Amino acid sequence: MVALKSRYATIDDFLLAITPQRQVEICHAPEKCYFGDSPTLAMLNSCYGRGAAEAWLVPEVVDACLFYGLKEQPDNWQVEKLVRIIVANYGYLKVDELQLFFFNFCSARYRHFYNTFDPSIILLSFRDFLRDRNRAYEEREQREREREREEWRRNAISREEYLKRKEEMLLER
């Protein structure tokens, strides 16, 4: 959190720097979004005080609604309740992951609105996003296991070599 505070002294500094327009920049590197070091929603609240994560999320939600050109935009109560639900359920998600989610949501990768705002569309879309995220984590773990196996193979010796070395060690004593 010290690094976060040193980079963005206040939540206002963070809000000015990490805007919905940034989604297009980071969407090309989903791996970095998932595995990078951006702060989580819980970290924002811990670092800047209760409500900081919600304050950051409001523009993300509003941006998605504006993008879809809804005939009926959400009222403040709907947006505020939605962002509280997101923070309560997904506080472990990183800011970059959430921006990737909203980019994918606006790209019609998940569910979408039908002329009016329905918060459940975003919440249900989070389930789809989490499946993508879990798949990315599983693939990364698989690559890591394969790398470890390959490293083990490179360093492995045959049983005969092991017995030979063991015998040599005994003879040296």
What do these coordinates show?
The protein has 173 residues and is an all-alpha fold. It contains ten helices and no strands. It has helices at residues 2-7, 11-17, 23-26, 30-35, 41-48, 52-68, 76-90, 95-106, 119-155, 159-172. Helix 6 runs parallel beside helix 8 (95-106). The radius of gyration is 23 Å and the shape is elongated. The mean pLDDT is 93.
Short summary of the structure?
By secondary structure, the chain is mostly helical.
Short descriptors:
mainly alpha, 173 residues
Cα-to-Cα separation, first versus last residue: 54 Å
Fraction in helix? over 70%
Give the low-confidence spans.
none
Strand content: under 5%
Average pLDDT number: 93
Secondary-structure-derived class: mainly alpha
As a whole number of angstroms, the C-alpha radius of gyration is 23 Å
Outline: elongated
Number of strands: 0
Q: Which sheet architecture does the biggest sheet show?
A: none
